[in-house]
Design a protein that fits this description.
By secondary structure, this protein is mainly beta. It is 0% helix and 53% strand. The strands form 2 sheets. Strands 2, 4, 5, 6, 9, 10 and 11 form a 7-stranded mixed β-sheet that branches. Strands 1-3-8-7 form a 4-stranded antiparallel β-sheet, with no helix packed on it. A hairpin with a 6-residue loop joins strand 5 and strand 6.
């Protein structure tokens, strides 16, 4: 079965950096695009970043462009989100997702940006 497991979240000060990871299993990872979404307290889940199956193309929501980078290692079945210049409004639970016949999500990892 499809499994997505996020890790690497934590508490970071404004302006700091964090890299979160998502380990995938149960499907042919290298054949599927991957995405990161986030959900802040009291808000709906929103799109953050997308990467094609080969990693050759990416897209981002406007608020993270120039600060976040999505990447993947198909040999390790893992997708990453490098987050730089973090701001308090980046605080959220971050979820990775994959559309494998239907949409699958991981359990999420908490990122808190606070001094």
């Amino acid at each position: 079965q499809v499994q997505l497991v996020e890790s690497g979240g934590g508490l970071v000060q404004p302006g700091g950096s964090l890299r979160i990871s998502c380990a995938a299993s149960g499907f042919t990872f290298s054949s599927y695009a991957m995405r990161w979404h986030r959900q802040a307290p009291g808000k709906e889940r929103e799109f953050v970043a997308f990467i094609t199956s080969s990693g050759g193309s990416t897209s981002y929501t406007d608020s993270v462009k120039g600060r976040f980078t999505i990447s993947r290692d198909n040999a390790k079945n893992t997708v990453y989100l490098q987050m730089n210049s973090l701001r308090p409004d980046d605080t959220a639970v971050y979820y990775c997702g994959a559309l494998v016949r239907s949409m699958y999500w991981g359990q999420g990892t908490q990122v808190t940006v606070s001094s």
